[in-house]
């Protein structure tokens, strides 16, 4: 399904970009820009909006044609500053300014107002405002990380001490979320002295270079019962061969004492209470079937506490687990990560694929906690979507 949204997103960017470029050139001409300047402006906008995706597609096609075992990356400083940041900031500026441009255009057409100096300024104003506001907010919020504490009441008579669970996900280590930042986060997690560390996966972003560092990050938190993880989307993206990728990540984590669990249940005895945790593989590259999900939920029954950990959480999975699982822990969405300003409100685009975007939800007797994660996916920044780490206390 992700490639459908990708295709729709690229189509929207193309149409909106061409429309915005035409309006900007018209406004520039009305303000007296020379024909040569208009040509330079036209090509500059084209570079901002279309160069990066064109180069990415060409690189992927070339990698596949040459039979390389991994895709080329774009996380170096030159590519980041010359291509990645300009593209995403330009796209955000266009998408956010588009509603205002359409209104200005509609009013001008209805009232038959020719493009003059006032009309040109009306066209350029929302673009300039968004071009200032967007990077300013990104810089202002950069590095923000919410530490959220949740108390979840477990069934049964009072008695055992609380079970402290740290839930982390989506570090996606690369040059943008490097080992130092990841280690700082995990050091703070360790200071909470959790009994159990669970992860929603996505330890790396792309490529094999950061697998070893990510595995060392995962092992930084000592706990009574250990650290366990599900498979994330990006854990499949180290190599072109997804099986090779997941095997490499699994092996590196295992060598550091962290178990990446694939569609299986692990049980823990917490002061006489049985805690059963099901690790569901549910991501774009690999999704467990409905039968597999039912098997895992069935294996949880009879435990004092039933927990389901998954990378992605969609409505159907949540509905099947409702009232049969005490706690669902999920990741993947990054809280939207890039939540554009549409009108007057920032809208998390992750709602297009799931109602469970960020935070805590209650579905019958089942508590759902979705973390916004730590790192970045595809876009090397967050916009109106700070990350999070979830600290869960199960009490009786």
Helices and strands in order:
Blueprint: H1 2-30, H2 35-66, H3 77-110, H4 117-141, E1 145-153, E2 163-168, H5 179-190, E3 196-199, H6 211-218, E4 227-229, H7 242-255, E5 258-260, E6 264-270, E7 273-280, H8 290-300, E8 305-310, H9 315-321, E9 327-330, E10 341-342, E11 345-346, E12 359-363, E13 366-370, E14 387-395
Parallel strand pairs: 1-14, 2-3, 3-4, 4-5, 7-8, 8-9, 9-13
Antiparallel strand pairs: 2-14, 6-7, 10-11, 12-13
Helix pairs in contact: 1-2, 1-3, 1-4, 2-3, 3-4, 5-6, 6-7
In short, what is this structure?
This protein has 396 residues and is of the alpha/beta class. The chain folds into 2 domains: 2-141, no CATH class; 146-395, Purple Acid Phosphatase, chain A, domain 2. It contains 9 helices and 14 strands.
Could you characterize the architecture of this molecule?
By secondary structure, the chain is α/β, with parallel strands linked by helices. The protein folds into 2 domains: 2-141, no CATH class; 146-395, Metallo-dependent phosphatases (Purple Acid Phosphatase, chain A, domain 2, 4-Layer Sandwich), CATH 3.60.21. The chain contains 9 helices and 14 strands. It has helices at 2-30, 35-66, 77-110, 117-141, 179-190, 211-218, 242-255, 290-300, 315-321; strands at 145-153, 163-168, 196-199, 227-229, 258-260, 264-270, 273-280, 305-310, 327-330, 341-342, 345-346, 359-363, 366-370, 387-395. A hairpin with a 2-residue loop joins strand 6 and strand 7. Helix 1 packs across helix 3 and helix 2 (35-66) packs across helix 3. The two termini are 40 Å apart.
């Amino acid at each position: 399904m992700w490639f459908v949204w990708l295709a729709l997103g690229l189509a929207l960017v193309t149409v909106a970009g061409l429309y915005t470029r035409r309006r900007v050139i018209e406004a520039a001409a009305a303000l007296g820009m020379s024909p040569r300047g208009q040509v330079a402006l036209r090509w500059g906008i084209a570079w901002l909006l279309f160069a990066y995706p064109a180069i990415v597609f060409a690189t992927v096609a070339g990698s596949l044609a040459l039979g390389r075992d991994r895709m080329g990356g774009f996380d170096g400083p030159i590519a980041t500053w010359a291509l990645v940041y300009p593209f995403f900031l330009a796209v955000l500026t266009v998408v956010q300014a588009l509603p205002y441009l359409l209104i200005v255009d509609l009013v001008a057409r209805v009232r038959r107002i020719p493009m003059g100096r006032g009309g040109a300024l009306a066209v350029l104003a929302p673009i300039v405002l968004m071009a200032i506001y967007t990077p300013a907010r990104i810089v202002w919020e950069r590095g923000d990380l919410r530490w959220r504490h949740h108390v979840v009441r477990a069934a049964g008579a009072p008695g055992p001490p609380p079970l402290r669970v740290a839930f982390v996900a989506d570090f996606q280590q690369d040059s943008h979320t490097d080992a130092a930042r990841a280690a700082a986060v995990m050091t703070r997690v360790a200071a909470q002295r959790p009994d159990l560390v669970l992860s929603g996966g996505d330890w790396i972003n792309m490529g094999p270079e950061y697998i070893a560092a990510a595995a060392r990050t995962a092992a930084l938190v000592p706990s009574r019962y250990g650290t366990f993880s599900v498979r994330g989307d990006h854990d499949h993206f180290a190599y072109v061969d997804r099986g090779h990728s997941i095997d490499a990540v699994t092996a590196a984590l295992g060598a550091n004492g962290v178990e990446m669990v694939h569609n299986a249940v692990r049980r823990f005895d917490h002061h006489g209470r049985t805690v059963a945790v099901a690790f569901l593989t549910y991501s774009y590259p690999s999704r467990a079937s409905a039968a597999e999900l039912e098997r895992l939920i069935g294996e949880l029954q009879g435990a004092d506490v039933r927990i389901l950990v998954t990378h992605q959480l969609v409505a159907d999975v949540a509905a099947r687990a409702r009232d049969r699982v005490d706690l669902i822990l999920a990741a993947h969405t990054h809280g939207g990560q890039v939540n554009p300003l549409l009108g007057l409100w920032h809208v998390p685009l992750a709602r297009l694929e799931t109602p469970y975007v960020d935070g805590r939800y209650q579905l019958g007797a089942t508590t759902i906690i979705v973390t916004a994660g730590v790192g970045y996916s595809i876009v090397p920044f967050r916009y109106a979507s700070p990350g999070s780490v979830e600290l869960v206390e199960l009490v009786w």
